[in-house]
Amino acid sequence: MNKLLNTLGLAMRAGKIISGEDLVIREIRSKKAKIVILATDTARNTEKKISDKCQFYQVPMIRFGTRQELGNAIGKTERVVIAVTDFGFAKMIQQLVQ
């Protein structure tokens, strides 16, 4: 778990993280998002909206951590959804989840 949060921090410092529901949906639609991370304590309607977009545009999505943990990992306040826009970081995150 710590490795995944550290990887998110590295990706943020590299400028490869987009956070916030509207911005993430835009990245999914433009096919720039390589993986989407959704907090486990997300509201049902937000979860459905993000999940449906990810399925339609074939973007992998994982549920991980609380909104507080995700926010802390990228040096911001609470974040419900994060998109990683770099293939290398996305691949690293998928390997850590498995």
Automatic annotation (TrEMBL):
One MF term in the entry's GO annotations: RNA binding
Domain Ribosomal protein eL8/eL30/eS12/Gadd45: 3-91
Pfam family, one: Ribosomal_L7Ae
Gene3D superfamilies: 3.30.1330.30
Annotated GO CC locations: ribonucleoprotein complex; ribosome
Record keywords, A-Z: Ribonucleoprotein, Ribosomal protein
InterPro entries assigned: Ribosomal_eL30-like, Ribosomal_eL30-like_sf, Ribosomal_eL8/eL30/eS12/Gad45
Record-linked NCBIfam families: PRK07714.1
Name of the protein described by the UniProt record: Ribosomal protein eL8/eL30/eS12/Gadd45 domain-containing protein
Native source species: Thermoflavimicrobium daqui
Source taxonomy: Bacteria, Bacillati, Bacillota, Bacilli, Bacillales
